[in-house]
Specification:
Length: 317
Amino acid sequence: MAFVKRFLYLIVPLSVGLYFVREYFQGCKYTGNERLDDKVVLITGANTGIGKETAKNMALRGARVYMACRNLNKANAARDDLLNITGLPADKIKVMQMDLSSFRSIRNFVTEFHKVEEKLHILINNAGIMFTPFLKTEDGFEMQVGVNHLGHFLLTNLLIDKLKTSAPSRVVTVSSLAHMSGTVEFDNFRGEKGYSRINSYGNSKLMNILFAKELGRRLEGTGVTSYSLHPGGIVTDLQREVLNPFFVKVVHVLGYVFWKTIERGAQTTIYCAVNDNAGKETGLYYSDCAVKTPFGVDSETAKKLWEVSLSLTGLKQ
């Protein structure tokens, strides 16, 4: 009996403490009940992780959600899962194919999207790749920068007019705390002057923030607002693709306390997409549903990145 008491005296405080520590690291939980009835939402990379969770949330708010994904089989399986979970009719969640590593695929996607939708109220640039070996996109750019930045840059610009005619509308770009290690290597978009998979990922995430900042400046007064964000530390398929299976297990054990669940990782994206106060802001960076100051971001670099990206993607100045 004495042993049981000692055990309880030890385990109960530890359990309570663990709960509060875990809850602290889970970050914000957005509780706003804004409706999106008759709104159109487009999410890249929505077949897994926080993209899938965001798609579910947007659909439950009444939006018609388009999942723009590279792999149609995986996307359709995710769609079926979401329809089963939500009980929503099939026309509330739709799948379209798009490969962000191909400018041709992006342009084809936009052409098809224009055929099926007159409006676009929320564009969520969620898709991303992480720590890949040195690869090039179809257009010859280093893969992480090409997919994470240039692909979304082209997609957003091709949809700008539709976003303007649908205003008030929003562009939400998912970045990462990894931007703190990033720089913009203007002379190395093709990765031929040296490549580090970690550095390139950080560079691409910094570009996301610079892009969102400059987009906000350029669209000021149009009714289109722009946001970038850090979703928090989350165990997603990105980590599973790059980590040794043993380290994946270690990350999951530590992640129970220190990493966010996928549901909580989607909260800042959801906040930026629907919150009324956020709708009065533009070009800012968010973490845990609040404005934060990003590292290494300045207006001149943002403007230069925009101009260089216009040239690299073949868009007119």
